[in-house]
Amino acid sequence: MNPNTSSALTDAPDGRHTDDVPAVRVAFTPMVVVAAIFGAVLGAVGVSLTVLLQLVPEIAQVPGLEFIRHHSHPSGEATVYAWYSTLLLAALGLAFAVIASVKWHIRNLRWRYLVLASTALLLSADEAGMLHEEMARLTYFLGFSWGWTYNWLIAAVPLALLAGAFILWLARRIDPVLRRRLILAGAIFFLGAVVVESLGGMLETRTLALGETAHLLIFHLSFFVEESLEVAGVLVALWAALSYVKVMRSPTGLTVTADDVSR
């Protein structure tokens, strides 16, 4: 062999030629499970500490307890939990963008995945800036008001329904298994973002008459359930997207394709 000619068979770390080393599919499910456990524990800590500090205010003297409570409660802004939700949605947007790049040669699919990626990134920005709650100003400007729950839901619910209908139409042409999983994810997210959020508004406006202790417990529990459902919806969508992306790892690098095998 000419010494100046490079061989296509390079050695793997264990001494075998790369052609002899099988490619291994990267498993994303364990990462999604870890993210789910982290979010559940974080939210549970925040809600539990909030209730505990209100029932037993003297323990607020414990150093760092209020800091932990603030950053782990699901309803906070610019907190660890808020950034956790923001990053999950950003990761979902990135996953859809990867799928779009894999399907770039199919024009009728490329734009669909780009829209899904843009939607996830828009929701990520909304989570970071709490933009949806600014809709209360729009409803006030239009002269609408609900006394029994949050006013911003007046504008948010129709927009969510329209967006959901558009996404359903858009998803008709994508992989059927991925489509079913994304529909499930969207239903879970909608249940938390609209249905349970409305219940939380009823509790905050005292539409539901409860005793003080019961109100405290159920009100903060509604925060936990609402955010948990939203996060669960995002995690299911993220799992679905990452399961569809087929990333194979070999000594020569990574190969990214889509798992279009009928299941």
Question: How does the major sheet shape up?
Answer: 3 strands, antiparallel
Q: Number of DSSP strands?
A: 3
- Helix-residue proportion: 55-70%
Average residue-wise pLDDT: 85
Secondary structure category: mainly alpha
Task: Report strand order across the widest sheet.
Answer: 1-2-3
Poorly predicted runs of 5 or more residues: 1-12
Number of helices: 8
Distance between the termini: 47 Å
Overall geometric form: globular
From the alpha carbons, calculate the radius of gyration and give it in angstroms.
Answer: 23 Å
Total number of distinct structural domains: 1
The amount of beta strand, in percent, is 5-15%
- Topology as a string of helices (H) and strands (E): EHHHHHHHHEE
Structure, described:
Helix 3 runs antiparallel to helix 4. The protein is globular, with a radius of gyration of 23 Å. A three-stranded antiparallel sheet has the order 1-2-3. It has one domain. Strand 2 and strand 3 form a beta hairpin. By secondary structure, it is mainly alpha-helical. It has eight helices and three strands. 65% of the residues lie in helices and 5% in strands.
Topology:
Blueprint: E1 24-25, H1 29-55, H2 65-72, H3 80-102, H4 107-129, H5 135-142, H6 152-170, H7 176-204, H8 212-244, E2 245-250, E3 253-258
Antiparallel strand pairs: 1-2, 2-3
Helix pairs in contact: 1-2, 1-8, 3-4, 3-8, 5-6, 6-7, 7-8
Observed structural traits:
single chain; 263 residues; mainly alpha; 3 strands; disordered N terminus; 3-stranded antiparallel β-sheet
